[in-house]
Amino acid sequence: MTDMTDTLEPSRAKRLKALTHDVHDALDKSVMEASSFDDLPGYSRFVQMQWAFHRDIDALYDDAGLQAVLPGLQHRRRRALIAADLVDLGLALPQLGDDPAFAAGKEADLPTALGWLYVAEGSNMGAALLRKQAARMGLSDTHGARHLAPAEIGPAAHWRAFTAALDAVALTDAEEARVVQGAQSAFARVQDLAHACLG
Questions:
Q1: Which residues, listed in sequence order, are joined to residue 144 by a DSSP beta bridge?
Q2: Distances (CA, A) of 73 to 56, 58, 65, 124
Q3: Phi, psi angles (nearest 5°) of residue 143
Q4: Alpha helices of 100-144 — where are they, by DSSP H?
Q5: Bridge-partner residues for 140, per DSSP?
Q6: Contact criterion met (CB below 8 Å) for 96 and 51
Q7: Contact between residue 130 and residue 148 where contact means Cβ atoms under 8 Å apart
Q8: CA torsion, points 54, 126, 75, 143, in degrees to nearest 10?
Q9: What phi and psi values does residue 58 have, to the nearest 5 degrees?
Q10: This model's pTM is above 0.85
Q11: Mean pLDDT of all residues in 88-109
Q12: In order of start, what are the domains of the chain with their CATH numbers?
């Protein structure tokens, strides 16, 4: 249950955490209940899910409006790392029948995109534990689990830099609502992908 005081938190990132707690928790349970890190087949399905989500958001990293408010955004892109992990696992890139959530070359609605990127960046914070579980299967930062590797400055500092920039963006109340909706939509999308990929 979300404490209403959390929704009044001046930090946009902390408000998003409070307002998406339930959908985030449900997604974490889905990933764990699918035994995604018990063996290579389970992990392979997890990486395919990751590929599908990062395909959805890949265009955002080239968006000039987002680059202007999120310094270093392009360096946070992980799609190529996930693709390399799939190759390491002997898997082809998934052929998806739908269009990405954000189209290449089309300017994204900035508040909505911020919500989606919040979800993508937040997953990096949880990657440290998943990285250890992947290591037990013989995977590493250079083979099969590249996309779980931490940033050079460390996951906590990497997250703080992102949330500082996120919190600094000036938005209207209507735009704030679109950030929240964007984050909730991103979690819902990953949940759908978890059902499709993880079973």
A1: 140
A2: 16, 11, 11, 14
A3: -155, 110
A4: 110-135
A5: 143, 144
A6: no
A7: yes
A8: -80
A9: -55, -40
A10: yes
A11: 93
A12: 4-198 (1.20.910.10)
Q: How confident is the model at residue 199 (pLDDT cuts 50, 70, 90)?
A: confident
* Strand, coil or helix: 140: strand
Cα separation, 193 vs 15, whole angstroms: 25
pLDDT of residue 2: 42
Which of 47-69 are b and which e, b meaning 16 or more Cβ less than 10 Å from the residue's Cβ? bbbbbbbbbbbbbbbebeebeee
Backbone angles phi, psi at 50, to 5 degrees: -60, -45
Torsions phi, psi for 46 (to 5 deg): -60, -45
Report how far apart, in Å, the C-alpha atoms of 30 and of each of 36, 46, 161, 188 are. Answer: 9, 11, 29, 12
Please check whether residue 162 is in contact with residue 76, taking contact to mean a CB–CB distance below 8 angstroms.
yes
Q: Is 143 helix (H, G, I), strand (E, B) or coil?
A: strand
For residue 188, with 0-12 CB atoms within 10 Å meaning exposed, 13-18 middle and 19 or more buried, which class applies? Answer: middle
Integer Cα distance of 26 and 51 in angstroms: 20
Give 101-131 pLDDT, tens digit per residue. 999 999 999 999 999 999 999 998 878 889 9
Render pLDDT for 24-62 as a digit per residue (tens, 0 to 9). 999 989 988 999 999 999 999 999 999 999 999 999 999
Q: Does residue 68 surpass a pLDDT of 60? A: yes
